[in-house]
Each structure stands twice: as structure tokens, then as C-alpha cells.
Amino acid sequence: MKFIIQRDKLIASVQDVMKAISTRTAIPILTGMKIEAKDHGIKLTGSDSDISIESYIPAESDGMVHVEEIEEGSIVLQARYFPDIVRKLPEKTVEIEADSNLKVTIRSGKAEFNLNGQDAEEYPQLPKLQTDDSFELQTDLLKNLIKQTVFAISTMETRPILTGVNLKLEGKQLKFTATDSHRLASREIPVKEANIEFSSIVVPGKSLNELYKILDDTDEPIEISVTNNQILFRTKHLYFLSRLLDGTYPETSRLIPDQSKTVLYVNTKDLLNTIDRASLLAKEDRNNVVRLTTKDGQTVEITSNSPEVGRATEEISAKSIEGEELKISFSSKYMLDALKAIEYDEVKIEFTGAMRPFIIRPVNNDSILQLILPVRTY
Amino acid sequence: MKFIIQRDKLIASVQDVMKAISTRTAIPILTGMKIEAKDHGIKLTGSDSDISIESYIPAESDGMVHVEEIEEGSIVLQARYFPDIVRKLPEKTVEIEADSNLKVTIRSGKAEFNLNGQDAEEYPQLPKLQTDDSFELQTDLLKNLIKQTVFAISTMETRPILTGVNLKLEGKQLKFTATDSHRLASREIPVKEANIEFSSIVVPGKSLNELYKILDDTDEPIEISVTNNQILFRTKHLYFLSRLLDGTYPETSRLIPDQSKTVLYVNTKDLLNTIDRASLLAKEDRNNVVRLTTKDGQTVEITSNSPEVGRATEEISAKSIEGEELKISFSSKYMLDALKAIEYDEVKIEFTGAMRPFIIRPVNNDSILQLILPVRTY
After folding, report:
1. Is 60 exceeded by the pLDDT of residue A65?
2. Do A111 and B277 touch (CB under 8 A)?
3. What is the DSSP secondary-structure string of A202-259?
4. Does B312 touch chain A if contact means CB atoms closer than 8 Å?
5. Position B378 confidence tier, pLDDT thresholds 50, 70, 90
6. Is there a contact between B280 and A81 if contact means CB atoms under 8 Å apart?
7. CATH number of domain containing B241
8. What is the pLDDT of residues A84-98, one digit of tens each?
9. CATH number of the domain enclosing A262
10. Which of A141, A376, B277, B285 has the highest local Cβ count within 10 Å?
11. How far apart are CA A152 and CA A272, in angstroms?
12. Which residues form the DNA polymerase III beta sliding clamp N-terminal domain (chains A, B) (predicted)?
């Protein structure tokens, strides 16, 4: 195997593929990165057996040459050193060569690295998804769906199914839902092209977080294929495969109250900043509890209290407050997460009393829903 | 006590003073920050009893008003919350008020924080330096002196004296020296104004690192006073007091060879980048050892070797090589630290054989000296 490659292209691909490579894996060769040279380009592969990522660098694209002098072949390189070496090489191009004894030479300018490779034949064959069932989405929309929901997954392994995000595609509506049983985040969008439906698959939150980091903010399409135990995200040069979580995701729709006793309309950023400040004195308590009190149908008071340290109080003007007066306590962290996910200037918050879950939504947009369970305070 | 202060001024001062405040201190009140309001301005104080920092915000400077409506008084506030509160306040001004029950109110816009203060009378009196013996330096020069030497101090408590930087002021020459007994860094500069001399004081490395972070890169003067157990750095609005280390600093001058067998002139950045790359494959070894070999009076080869992983080789062209051929091994980390401290385009490296310490200096500048002990390799 031999090729000469543009260093910046190689760096970008190596970074993407590294997201799937773990130093802790039961299969030692998976701590390495597979490099395959074919006439038409170079493919890098990394996997921790939960997530597998392939990144492809075409020999030529858009009239630009990225890889030259390709001699076909493949090798596995230790991933611990390879990214740093590539990043620090002196020239704009890199020559990579592997001989029949699995000795790899990396050259750039006068710098030469000789590394011990491993036989690519010993690298596990990645499962190829046997399905034509897929749908398409804009990449930046997918990133938004992930960002607006994945923070609400559970980080505790007591209910493993809650460490994933629930995906549902029905009637050309795609819905992401995440909950840790104290709060819930969901987002729904219409999908144009779809030849499948599924009612409930669960993608590990870790997979979605890594995918989010790799994807560019572009309106290019991303193709998503689903089988009963895997999900594949595919763009032009990227192939991201994740296992699905086993188990039944809880029915969340009945958590969402369909009535409300108090409705608050308020500027998102005002509320966010006020709660952020109040949370500074809510730290003593594990739950970072702050209290919200409506006042005279126009004003909201946010307070927090740490007996040893002191208290914070701040009033903000609401756009409007409808219904009953309210005093309610909740986790400032959950509220901050939810408000950050809203991405609209104004929010509508629907309460059904101090002990019932409440709902946060953008005004005039029901596709984003954030739900938080209040905290009892005495 | 009461005053209204520009928030950005307060933030900057609080950040500086926080550098001296530790959560681990034998004297509980030192986890707090002392605030004193006087007619002419506000003084903040923090101390961990090794380092004490005072920052002063004048009521007015350069025709700008920074503090208004001052009612004199003082209070101690818990430092754990105060900086975050000030940073997150909504408006450009902050009102701080303490009542006779030590209740402190911080107001900005509609945000109000009520904190429990402590009696400033209980805050330890900082030792005032009783001396007129001082000298002056440009602040940016002092920062340079620190940066070029402090990295070479020992981090091990086995020889506490080596965790400090040795300062010497004789014949209007100020010299900083640091060594961990494997390498040494020193820098000497002339001082214009000085009414003292001292042959050997040792300032804790930690103090100099904190001072470095606080000082601005300005050519404004900084006044330095020294007694037998303390050193004071004073600028217009800052007062930085550190204890000195007890003990005798080792005589380092005889470590420095006065002859050389091989002299190498080379571009600093070329050598730095090459060693940086080679160090990637020197990690297996605790000492990050790389090897330097002179070749044909014109070329230097840098190599490293990690038996399990592979080897790196790179040649660089020297400006010139004088004297005997040489093979020498040394810690890449020490060499990188030394080269970064040089700050000149070209370096001169003087070797006295593979087993003797070698010296790195800028070409045509003897005021900066870096010394490294080689590593035996077999």
C-alpha cells in the first residue's frame, strides 16, 4: 500500500474516525485505525463495536486532487500515535507506505516515521446494513434534533433504555424524545423522503453526541437507514453505524398534561439569565432548586436560597400571565437546559399546579416540547 | 459600607485577588475576600498566608468615575460565590451594601443577592513590609524573566528550595535562576533604579506563576521590595506579597561548563518543531528521550525510538557545526521547554561530550542561558 495525500484532508478524516476508537476495548485490534487504499480513494475505519465510523477521501473531487500515486492495499495503525503524527508533520502532503512485513513509513518533508502496523485482514468485518429502508434529512436539521433532546437522557445505568434517545417515524413525521424520568425533551419534524416507518427505536445518547461532533452544519442531505438492531447515518464521505439499545422505551405521551392552570409568556433570554444568576445560590442543594412565583399578573419572581450563604431574588416582566397565581420550585439546571434548547425569542410555559409537571414550548411552535417535574419544597 | 461600582472594574480586581485565595487553608476567614470602602476608592484583599494580594479600584482615575456614593466600611465575603455573582450580574454597575449585622446586599438591575458576610476585624492583618529597599523594573520585562525561568523549577518536595526561583541583584544586574537538578534556566538583565543588593533570595515558583497571570503586558514600572523573609511586587493598583523560601540555594555557576567540544548553530523553530515531532515516539519512555547526531558538519539528525511502536527520524540543516562529531541523548521535554524560552530566531548549543551538560543560548546574547543534562543511553 502506498499513497500521497493532502495533509489537511487526512487530519479531518482521522479526527472523525477517532471518535469511534476507544483505548478500552475487548478486541485489541480495535484500538487501531484501518487504512485502505483503493484506486479511487482512501478509506479510514474506526470502531469500538458499539459505534463504527468510516471516512472516505476520494482521490479527486470537484476537480481537486486529494490523493496521488495510489498503490492499493490496507493496514491497521495504532491510533494512539497516528493522529498526533499527522497533525505535526511539516509539509502539506504526506506519503504513507506499508510493506509486506506490515512496516509503515510516514514521510513529509524531511520527517520520517516508521511504525509497526497490523494486518488489516485481522480487523473485524464491519456489519453491512442489509436494507434499502431509509429516509433523508438535512444534516443541520438532524444536528438540531440531537441538540434539542440528547441532553435530557439519563446518565445512570439503572434504566439503560433511558440512556438513549427514542426515535419514531410515522406518517412522515420524525420525532426524537429523551427523558431521565425527571424531565423530558422532544422535537418533531416533517420528513420529505421516507420509505420506512418505525414506532420506537432507541439510539444510545453517546452515539448521537459523537455524530453531532462529526457532522458539519450544512444543508446537504444525510441518509438514515434502520434495521432492528442498528442505525446507519450516511453522507457523501461518511458512514456512521451505531447499535440500537435493546428494550422497550416507556410510553411518554401520557406524561404530558393536556390542561393547564397557569400560562406564562416570557422572553427566553430574560428568564434564562435570571435563573442562571439565581442558580448561583442554589448550589448547596444537590438539585439546584430555584423558586418561581407569579405576582400581580405581570411579574415573575425567581428566588433561591442557601441557608449558610444567602439568597438571590430577581423580578422579570412577563409578556403575559394567564390563569391562577403560582408558586413552584424546580431544578435550575433542568430549566436552563430546556430554555437553551428552545432557540426562540419567546417561550410559553404551561403549569398545572405546583406538584405537576410543566411544559415549556416556543410561542406558536408545538414541534419543540420540554417538560420538567417540579421539586417539592416545604 | 456602601458603594456603586463599575462592574468590569470590579470583575478584573476580583479575578486578580482570587489568585491568592485557597479553599484549603487553616484559617477559615481566609477563604473569604476582604472588601474595604474608603472615600478615595475600594480595596479588595485575598490571602492564603503564603501569598497576599491587594487590588485597589480608585473612585476616579484619568477623569473616569469608577466608584460612586461611597459610604466607608469593610466586610469579608465568601469567595466561593462572589466572583460568579459579579460576573453574571445584568447591568454595568453594581451596588454593594453591608449593614451592621454583616448582611451584604448586592444589587444590579432587578437582581438582588443577600449574602452573609463576616467581620472584617477578624481578617488577619497582612504584614506590611517595613523597608525602603526596592528596585524598579518594566512589568513586561519581569513577566519575561518569570516565563523564561520558572518552568525549570522542581515540582518535587524532596528539595523544597528547588521549588523556587533564585533571585540575585548585584551591581545593578538582576538574575533569575531555576533548576530541578536535571536542567537549569537563567536570565539576567540590567536594572536602572536600585537602592538594594541581595545575593540569593528564593521566591516560590507558585507565587511567580500567579503573579505572571495577574500582571498585564505593559511597560509600566513595577516596584520590588525585599526583606529577609518576604518580597513585595507593587504596581499602581496592585500589591502582591509573597513569603520567601527558607534555606540555601545551591551554587549553580560551577555547573556551567566553560569549554565546549561541539558548537551547533541552528534555527530555533526548525529544531523545536523537529524535536516536537520526534517526541511523539519517545513517549513510552518516562524521560521522552530523543537522540541528536551531527552529520558531515552541516546536518543534524534527530531520532526517537519506541520499540513497541516504531521510530522517528528527521534531518535538519544547521547554520553551522563546529568541533567534534557528536551523538547525544536528552529529554525532549526539557529541550522543548528551553527552546520555547529562547525567543530568538537562532540558537547556539554548546556541547562538551555526550555525558556532560550542554548549554543553549540565543546567538549573540549571553543573558539567557538554558542548561540540560543529557541522558545515558546504551
Report:
1. yes
2. yes
3. EEEHHHHHHHHHHS-S--SEEEEEE-SSEEEEE-SSEEEEEEPPPSPPP--GGGS-S-
4. yes
5. low
6. yes
7. 3.10.150.10
8. 999 999 999 999 999
9. 3.70.10.10
10. B277
11. 17
12. 1-127
